[in-house]
Amino acid sequence: MFNLLGTIVNAIAIVVGSLVGIFIKRGLPDNIKETVMKGLALCVLYLGFSGTLKGNNPLLMILSIVIGGVVGEAIDIDKAITKLGNNIEKRFKGGESKISQGFVASSLLFCVGSMAIVGSLESGLTGNHQMLYAKSILDGVSSIIFSSTLGIGVMISAISVFIYQGFITICAALLKGILLETVVANMTAIGSLLIIGIGLNMLGITKIKVANLLPAVFIPIIYQLFIR
What we know:
With 228 residues, the chain is an all-alpha fold.
Protein backbone atom coordinates (compact mmCIF):
# COMPACT_ATOMS: atom_id res chain seq x y z
CA MET A 1 0.00 0.00 0.00
CA PHE A 2 2.93 2.37 0.67
CA ASN A 3 4.05 1.98 -2.95
CA LEU A 4 0.58 3.16 -4.04
CA LEU A 5 0.61 6.27 -1.84
CA GLY A 6 1.58 8.61 -4.69
CA THR A 7 -1.18 7.22 -6.91
CA ILE A 8 -3.77 7.56 -4.14
CA VAL A 9 -2.81 11.21 -3.57
CA ASN A 10 -3.00 11.82 -7.34
CA ALA A 11 -6.51 10.37 -7.58
CA ILE A 12 -7.70 12.43 -4.59
CA ALA A 13 -6.25 15.61 -6.14
CA ILE A 14 -8.27 15.01 -9.31
CA VAL A 15 -11.47 14.47 -7.33
CA VAL A 16 -10.94 17.61 -5.26
CA GLY A 17 -10.00 19.70 -8.30
CA SER A 18 -13.02 18.44 -10.21
CA LEU A 19 -15.37 19.32 -7.35
CA VAL A 20 -13.94 22.85 -7.27
CA GLY A 21 -14.34 23.13 -11.05
CA ILE A 22 -17.94 21.94 -10.94
CA PHE A 23 -18.67 24.38 -8.12
CA ILE A 24 -17.34 27.42 -10.02
CA LYS A 25 -18.65 26.25 -13.39
CA ARG A 26 -21.38 28.86 -13.66
CA GLY A 27 -19.02 31.66 -12.73
CA LEU A 28 -16.73 31.19 -15.72
CA PRO A 29 -17.75 32.70 -19.08
CA ASP A 30 -17.54 30.39 -22.09
CA ASN A 31 -14.86 32.48 -23.78
CA ILE A 32 -12.59 32.15 -20.73
CA LYS A 33 -13.14 28.38 -20.58
CA GLU A 34 -12.33 27.99 -24.28
CA THR A 35 -9.21 30.14 -24.10
CA VAL A 36 -7.90 28.32 -21.04
CA MET A 37 -8.62 24.92 -22.64
CA LYS A 38 -6.65 25.93 -25.74
CA GLY A 39 -3.85 27.20 -23.51
CA LEU A 40 -3.76 23.89 -21.66
CA ALA A 41 -3.62 22.11 -25.01
CA LEU A 42 -0.49 24.10 -25.85
CA CYS A 43 1.00 23.12 -22.48
CA VAL A 44 0.19 19.49 -23.24
CA LEU A 45 2.03 19.79 -26.56
CA TYR A 46 5.03 21.31 -24.80
CA LEU A 47 5.15 18.43 -22.30
CA GLY A 48 4.86 15.95 -25.13
CA PHE A 49 7.64 17.42 -27.28
CA SER A 50 10.02 17.82 -24.33
CA GLY A 51 9.39 14.26 -23.16
CA THR A 52 10.08 12.64 -26.52
CA LEU A 53 13.67 13.90 -26.36
CA LYS A 54 14.35 11.57 -23.42
CA GLY A 55 14.27 8.50 -25.68
CA ASN A 56 17.51 6.98 -26.95
CA ASN A 57 16.23 4.52 -29.54
CA PRO A 58 14.14 6.06 -32.37
CA LEU A 59 13.78 2.69 -34.10
CA LEU A 60 12.30 1.15 -30.96
CA MET A 61 9.88 4.09 -30.70
CA ILE A 62 8.69 3.52 -34.26
CA LEU A 63 8.32 -0.24 -33.75
CA SER A 64 6.50 0.32 -30.46
CA ILE A 65 3.99 2.68 -32.07
CA VAL A 66 3.39 0.24 -34.95
CA ILE A 67 3.04 -2.85 -32.75
CA GLY A 68 1.11 -0.98 -30.07
CA GLY A 69 -1.24 0.45 -32.69
CA VAL A 70 -1.96 -2.98 -34.13
CA VAL A 71 -2.64 -4.44 -30.68
CA GLY A 72 -4.68 -1.43 -29.61
CA GLU A 73 -6.84 -1.52 -32.73
CA ALA A 74 -7.34 -5.27 -32.39
CA ILE A 75 -8.54 -4.79 -28.83
CA ASP A 76 -10.12 -1.42 -29.73
CA ILE A 77 -9.28 0.25 -26.43
CA ASP A 78 -10.71 3.54 -27.66
CA LYS A 79 -14.11 1.96 -28.26
CA ALA A 80 -14.09 0.28 -24.85
CA ILE A 81 -13.21 3.53 -23.04
CA THR A 82 -15.77 5.51 -25.02
CA LYS A 83 -18.43 2.89 -24.33
CA LEU A 84 -17.63 3.03 -20.62
CA GLY A 85 -17.89 6.82 -20.73
CA ASN A 86 -21.23 6.63 -22.55
CA ASN A 87 -22.61 4.19 -19.97
CA ILE A 88 -21.49 6.51 -17.19
CA GLU A 89 -23.10 9.56 -18.79
CA LYS A 90 -26.40 7.70 -19.27
CA ARG A 91 -26.49 7.00 -15.56
CA PHE A 92 -25.85 10.64 -14.67
CA LYS A 93 -27.46 12.82 -17.31
CA GLY A 94 -29.44 10.71 -19.72
CA GLY A 95 -26.90 10.66 -22.52
CA GLU A 96 -25.38 14.14 -22.68
CA SER A 97 -22.04 13.95 -24.46
CA LYS A 98 -20.07 16.14 -22.02
CA ILE A 99 -19.65 13.43 -19.38
CA SER A 100 -18.27 10.88 -21.82
CA GLN A 101 -16.05 13.50 -23.44
CA GLY A 102 -14.71 14.64 -20.08
CA PHE A 103 -14.08 11.10 -18.85
CA VAL A 104 -12.27 9.95 -22.00
CA ALA A 105 -10.21 13.12 -22.56
CA SER A 106 -9.11 13.54 -18.95
CA SER A 107 -8.42 9.81 -18.46
CA LEU A 108 -6.05 9.85 -21.41
CA LEU A 109 -4.41 13.14 -20.45
CA PHE A 110 -3.83 12.18 -16.81
CA CYS A 111 -2.70 8.62 -17.60
CA VAL A 112 -0.54 8.84 -20.71
CA GLY A 113 1.87 11.54 -19.54
CA SER A 114 5.54 10.91 -18.89
CA MET A 115 5.06 11.94 -15.25
CA ALA A 116 2.43 9.23 -14.84
CA ILE A 117 4.80 6.59 -16.22
CA VAL A 118 8.04 7.71 -14.60
CA GLY A 119 6.37 8.67 -11.32
CA SER A 120 4.64 5.31 -11.04
CA LEU A 121 7.87 3.51 -11.86
CA GLU A 122 9.75 5.45 -9.18
CA SER A 123 7.03 4.65 -6.65
CA GLY A 124 7.31 0.95 -7.42
CA LEU A 125 11.10 0.76 -7.75
CA THR A 126 12.26 3.04 -4.93
CA GLY A 127 9.18 4.09 -2.95
CA ASN A 128 9.85 7.73 -3.93
CA HIS A 129 6.53 9.50 -4.59
CA GLN A 130 7.83 13.04 -5.18
CA MET A 131 7.10 13.05 -8.92
CA LEU A 132 3.56 11.79 -8.40
CA TYR A 133 3.03 14.44 -5.73
CA ALA A 134 4.08 17.09 -8.26
CA LYS A 135 1.81 15.49 -10.85
CA SER A 136 -1.02 15.60 -8.33
CA ILE A 137 -0.74 19.39 -8.13
CA LEU A 138 -0.73 19.75 -11.92
CA ASP A 139 -3.64 17.34 -12.37
CA GLY A 140 -5.60 19.03 -9.60
CA VAL A 141 -5.28 22.44 -11.27
CA SER A 142 -6.04 20.98 -14.71
CA SER A 143 -9.10 19.15 -13.39
CA ILE A 144 -10.52 22.45 -12.10
CA ILE A 145 -10.46 23.85 -15.62
CA PHE A 146 -11.56 20.66 -17.36
CA SER A 147 -14.45 19.95 -15.00
CA SER A 148 -15.68 23.54 -15.24
CA THR A 149 -16.09 22.86 -18.96
CA LEU A 150 -16.68 19.10 -19.24
CA GLY A 151 -18.35 18.34 -15.92
CA ILE A 152 -18.34 15.30 -13.66
CA GLY A 153 -16.71 13.01 -16.22
CA VAL A 154 -13.36 14.55 -15.27
CA MET A 155 -13.80 13.52 -11.65
CA ILE A 156 -14.65 9.93 -12.63
CA SER A 157 -11.32 9.76 -14.51
CA ALA A 158 -9.66 9.52 -11.08
CA ILE A 159 -10.62 5.84 -11.17
CA SER A 160 -8.72 5.39 -14.45
CA VAL A 161 -5.68 7.13 -12.97
CA PHE A 162 -5.71 4.92 -9.89
CA ILE A 163 -5.98 1.70 -11.91
CA TYR A 164 -3.42 2.70 -14.57
CA GLN A 165 -0.75 4.14 -12.29
CA GLY A 166 -1.37 1.49 -9.66
CA PHE A 167 -0.81 -1.22 -12.27
CA ILE A 168 2.49 0.33 -13.39
CA THR A 169 3.63 0.77 -9.78
CA ILE A 170 2.90 -2.84 -8.84
CA CYS A 171 4.55 -4.15 -12.01
CA ALA A 172 7.63 -2.00 -11.32
CA ALA A 173 7.91 -3.42 -7.80
CA LEU A 174 7.74 -6.95 -9.21
CA LEU A 175 10.15 -6.34 -12.12
CA LYS A 176 12.93 -4.32 -10.50
CA GLY A 177 15.65 -6.33 -12.22
CA ILE A 178 14.25 -5.73 -15.71
CA LEU A 179 13.28 -2.06 -15.76
CA LEU A 180 16.65 -0.52 -16.55
CA GLU A 181 17.13 3.22 -16.99
CA THR A 182 17.04 2.88 -20.79
CA VAL A 183 13.69 1.07 -20.62
CA VAL A 184 12.19 3.84 -18.49
CA ALA A 185 13.58 6.49 -20.87
CA ASN A 186 12.05 4.80 -23.90
CA MET A 187 8.70 4.30 -22.17
CA THR A 188 8.73 7.98 -21.25
CA ALA A 189 9.51 9.04 -24.83
CA ILE A 190 6.70 6.92 -26.27
CA GLY A 191 4.23 8.13 -23.67
CA SER A 192 5.22 11.72 -24.46
CA LEU A 193 4.63 11.08 -28.16
CA LEU A 194 1.08 10.05 -27.30
CA ILE A 195 0.71 13.27 -25.29
CA ILE A 196 1.39 15.22 -28.48
CA GLY A 197 -1.54 13.36 -30.05
CA ILE A 198 -3.76 14.37 -27.13
CA GLY A 199 -2.72 18.02 -27.49
CA LEU A 200 -3.50 18.00 -31.20
CA ASN A 201 -6.89 16.45 -30.49
CA MET A 202 -7.62 19.08 -27.85
CA LEU A 203 -6.92 21.80 -30.41
CA GLY A 204 -9.26 20.12 -32.89
CA ILE A 205 -6.46 19.63 -35.42
CA THR A 206 -6.64 15.82 -35.44
CA LYS A 207 -8.85 12.97 -34.23
CA ILE A 208 -6.18 10.46 -33.29
CA LYS A 209 -7.37 7.41 -31.34
CA VAL A 210 -4.69 7.84 -28.70
CA ALA A 211 -6.18 5.12 -26.50
CA ASN A 212 -5.52 2.54 -29.22
CA LEU A 213 -1.83 3.45 -29.10
CA LEU A 214 -1.48 2.90 -25.34
CA PRO A 215 0.02 -0.64 -25.66
CA ALA A 216 3.02 1.00 -27.36
CA VAL A 217 4.17 2.35 -23.98
CA PHE A 218 4.84 -1.19 -22.72
CA ILE A 219 6.67 -2.54 -25.79
CA PRO A 220 10.13 -1.43 -24.47
CA ILE A 221 9.68 -3.82 -21.55
CA ILE A 222 9.06 -6.74 -23.92
CA TYR A 223 12.01 -5.59 -26.04
CA GLN A 224 14.28 -5.60 -22.99
CA LEU A 225 13.20 -9.13 -22.09
CA PHE A 226 14.16 -10.42 -25.54
CA ILE A 227 17.57 -8.73 -25.78
CA ARG A 228 18.73 -9.79 -22.32
